[in-house]
Amino acid sequence: xxxxxxxxxxxxxxxxxxxxxxxxxxxxxxxxxxxxxxxxxxxxxxxxxxxxxxxxxxxxxxxxxxxxxxxxxxxxxxxxxxxxxxxxxxxxxxxxxxxxxxxxxxxxxxxxxxxxxxxxxxxxxxxxxxxxxxxxxxxxxxxxxxxxxxxxxxxxxxxxxxxxxxxxxxxxxxxxxxxxxxxx
Length: 184
What we know:
Distance between the termini: 132 Å
Structural class: mainly alpha
Oligomer: single chain
Mean pLDDT: 78
Order of helices and strands: HHHH
Largest sheet: none
């Protein structure tokens, strides 16, 4: 029996060696171990892979600016009529004022000349007669006033005829025609 036990013990040791040998055949010895004289130095480690390129950053597209709305179209008819009416009326009023100023200046020149001839001394100077008032106590001053008022009135009427009722009409025709040609 002792020989059977020794045989079994040897067989068990042989099986264990076979199992260990078989399992170690697939493994490489650990680095730095020099168990076998046939061991080659370990291969150089593989180079580390290159780092991936940085991610491409794409910015969102710039916002499209909101276009400025076009200004409303110009209403040339109303614009021209309004401007020309204002300009022609102002010109008419200025013309009449100029006629009145000219008539008053002509009256004053006429009255001064007349009274200097017809009034002895300075007797007509403070008579109270003048533009728009020819009733005064001095008959010479009153007579000069009436003569000069008539002359000034005639000059005023001639001047005013340039600015008659048709003045604004013809001014408007010319002004609007010119305005329509240049209106955008």
